[in-house]
Amino acid sequence: MNNNIKTGFKISTEWNKGFTGRIDLTNQGKLLSGWELEFKASFDISKIWGAEIVSHKGDTYVIRNSSETETIYKGKTRTIGFNANKINGKVVAPSNFIFNDESMSSPAPVNPAPTSTLTTNAVVSEDWSGGYKLEVDLKAASNSNDWKLDFNLPYNIRETYGVDIVKNGNGSYSINGQDYNQNLKKGESTKAIFIIDDGGNKALIPEFNGSVSSPSPSPSPSPNPVSNSPQKGQFAYGEALQKSFLFFEANRSGDLDKDNRIEWRSDSATRDGSDVGRDLSGGYYDAGDHVKFGLPMSATSTMLAWGGVEYTEAYKKVGQFDELLDAVKWGTDYYIKSNVTENGKTKEFYVQVGDGDLDHAFWGRPEDMTMARPSFKVTTSKPGSDVTAGTASALASASMLFRGTDNAYADKLLTNAKQLFEFADTYKGKYSDSVPKASPFYTSFNGYWDELTEGAAWLYKATGEQKYLDKAEDYFNNHIGGLGDWTWAADDKSYGAAVLLAQESDDPRYKQQVEGWLDKWVNGNSNIKYSPGGLAHRTAWGSLALSSASSFLAGLYNDTVKADAKYTKFATQQVDYILGDNPKNFSYMIGFGDNYAKQPHHRGSAGNSPYGQPNEHILYGALVGGPKSANDYDYKDDRNDWVTNEVATGYNAPLHSALIQQYDDLGGNPLTDQQLDALIGIDANGVGF
Fold it and tell me: Is 289 marked active-site?
């Protein structure tokens, strides 16, 4: 029995027949590795994460650590999350906690593995408060087939890139190669990257097939990757960016596992695709509803990756690069699942899960859905060039983002991007003609030439292959022709494609097109009207999403094509308007500032809140639609006014990329982990961690 463990209990979310709860274990003594916890509970646990149930007799539970929670450092807390069914309609806190540990202050030794033919060179490349990044170069001294390395490390390895890892328990690990590097010829090398939680202790380098050592003095670890960036603008853009990530996490579908930082969210729609015998779980819910629409989802992923590709160093400086990779990968993993191939070519592609009519008739949490969720696909006979080419853009841009961090995954993304683009280019058609259930929610009014142009431009950017640039220029010149006064949006990629061509092509016409279009937004010409408070307004629906998209593209054009202060001034003005520099002194980003929208049209966050009252859960980081007109006061914080108070991943994505620009130019630090963890409904370490 260990008396140095302090236990705490908290209800995260409660509904009629059950609740989501958490047990916190805080270590006030020495480092622990391996434990069991016994307690009494007047409820039935239906699902648990961060631990496993050893036994359940009567009202007594015994649970044991999972591999992620086996180590508890002195002064640190591990959290066990669970869903439970109420007994007698009420929740009574668990009691009679008995904590038993294996009293291991260091990992148990493992039997040494056979001598490896791999040599290793490991360095700590980044070191921050609570963890570090370890990069290991592996080189084959002789032919090494199906190689494996063992090592000990008294810390939790959170993520790996370039290798597969097995957690043997008690600090013992094994790694082996993946498909592309499991067989190495003499002289061939590969790289493994580990993201390691050290609980604030010293970074250690493992000796493969041995023990651990401190980092060698040369090369020395890089400093804390989260730099202090003084705020030169009106707002803390790093904090706004950080909270925007929380909104994307709140809209994740599928098995959320331990990475979920949103306490009121848990697994949902895990059987998506079962109607067609395919795993289509994962991805993002589109907005405040629970349909997974492929057209806006792929546009969202492209915009997120684009900001990361262009402002990688800014993301690393603000300490949000890992969050960006996770946010993009949550979408791209889903697209890869949706791509049905045959002989190396796309045969079919799933473009939607869920029926919009059935879904919109249900007002409740995604975890509580009971309606059918049919899967819809495009095929060679019923094509969808817009959504497949749009997804090719998402995968190609993501391949650039992951290149250098996880090259195997980057290669997989690029392969799928090429397959989908060829499919889109060969079998041309509008996806909403082939999948009527996409309408009226995301009808492809704009056709598919804009997505084909964008997809070709991104593949050129990712590969350097001239054939893709030739296609992009041909499609823009002969099928798009020119730009109007709209902007980047889920159904119109022509504006983004034009900026890509202005970046990549020697033809001056694309620069002329982009500058002519941007001048309309900067000067308030054509259908762009400025409100007295400075909002560039184009349309009633999603007015702030459109101004955000124009802001990002204006800032990007300034940074990569032609520097002009009017573009950066415009971008900053629009972002600042959203964050609170407006006549209402009102933040259109939920949870940012003191005066913000509290009734977004979002089923999950609304919870059981009655009409007219703030949502039960704060939907941190979500951008609401905004004013309906160029009247700064033409906005209602009303859950039933979905024109002004709708939220969507496609709304947040352009603002997100505009925010990293503003951080790059004007700084503004994010919240510390402690400040983030103090937000209501947020667990900075992950609900199941």
Answer: yes
